[in-house]
Amino acid sequence: MAQELPPIITYQPIEYGAENQNWSISQSNKDYIYVANNKGLLEFNGAKWQLYPTPNASVLRSVKVVDNLIYTGCYMDFGYWKKNSLGTLDYTSISDNLNIPLVEDEQFWNILAIDQYVLFQSLDRIYIYDVLKQSYKTIASENTITKMFKVKDTVYYQSFGEGLYKIENGQSQRVIVDEIFKKNNIVNMYDHNDQLLIQTQEEGFYNWKDGQLKKWESSSKDLIDGLSVYNSIQLKDGNFVLGTISNGIFYLNSSGDLLYKIDQTDGLSNNTVLSLFEDSNSNVWLALDNGINCINMKSALRIYNDEDGDLGTVYTSTLFEDNLYLGTNQGLFYKPIASNARFKFIEGTKGQVWCLKNIGGTLFCGHNLGTFVVKNNQAELIASIPGTWDVQASLEDENRVLQGNYSGLHVLERQNGQWTYKHKLEGFNISSRYFAIVDLSKILVSHEYKGVFEITTTSDWTQATSITKDVSVKKVLAQVW
Questions:
Q1: Local structure of 225: helix, strand or coil
Q2: Whole-angstrom Cα distance, residue 77 to residue 80?
Q3: Helix, strand, or coil here: 265?
Q4: Nearest-angstrom CA–CA distance, 431 and 481
Q5: 8-state DSSP, 246
Q6: Smallest Cα–Cα separation from 273: which of 251, 252, 299, 291?
Q7: Quick one: which of 3, 30, 101, 21 has its CA closest to 61?
Q8: Cβ–Cβ < 8 Å for 295, 303
Q9: Cβ proximity of 122 and 108 under 8 Å
Q10: Which residues share a beta bridge with 243?
Q11: Residue 265 phi/psi, 5° resolution?
Q12: Which residues of the chain are under the pLDDT cut of 50?
């Protein structure tokens, strides 16, 4: 699927100075980005990365910024980091300070904050840490806890093989026992249109309301049902981003319609998305199996990635009759403006395109072969004078245009609705890439090496009656300082 996509900033392990795998992302109130990496905690201030190795040299699995503390979870330990007087981070282990008897080989995969509590989730238990009292309580499960979620002011978690639970007043209560959630991992949960919207890893989305579980019917249902989704988030504008195990991300609107997808061929560092995070500026950060990416979702710019080199180098473009036309060194291409279709080549235009001009409702294409008129996505060669640099309308006659070519200036004329070649401006043979029509009998031509020429012509542009070179304009060689 071809598409125009928002800009993507990629950070490779060699740039952030840690290992390739990243598991979780959060942000401080000073806009610092924190990433849980295989090697430790990464801090990014927008200009440079700083690595804080995990105290016990294990993989850091989770990170969550709450107020001025950065809570993290790793192998057999969870705690928080805090800035010292030098501006660097110091670590305090909550599990060690409270002498919490952890389960053997326990790792902490998720962290949530609600009121005065911070919750740390492993595959075996959920530890509810009271920040004010500096005490804890444990929620145990007979089966694996796949993930926990916060929806409004309620914390939910899935016990695999049992169903969906919620925590109220420090106690767990089973909410849904449907077979769907006994056999499928829940990826995330949302409050959506006054219903509980639940996304599974392999079975897509479900709605839960008034004790009824129904499949979420959307235009992208069949596509999403066929994916293996590892994580997802709902953005501030209500849209959804799905991070998959092998297909990059999918961007849906609030109704579940697919807006676009982005994978490694489109610019992602890796197709396995381990975590997603929306920052304060609405950028979406991706913790990947190999690297960290940041997508500028709100950018006014969109990028079309020509990975296969089908288009070549783009020299000119224009919007015309609901199509986007691109003139490249390989020919003329087009696609509907509001579509994810690929660009199509217009037959007969192979070679260098120099300009595209909409003059009075006619699309002219200046080409190495000459001048084409483009209509209904077909091109007709109307002037076979080699090398049409530019085409400009007459200031006084809508049925006449002037074109600059490798060999001077030439005139096109419209008769009975059809454009045809009329004649050459005799007496001037210099390449005319840059020119301006001053009035009915005066034309300026700028040559990149020879200077600027003022040409006086007959009123019908058949003959140059005088040519004056402006000696005040000298050739200037561009320099980069």
A1: helix
A2: 10
A3: helix
A4: 30
A5: S
A6: 291
A7: 21
A8: no
A9: yes
A10: 231, 249
A11: -70, -20
A12: 1-2, 476-481
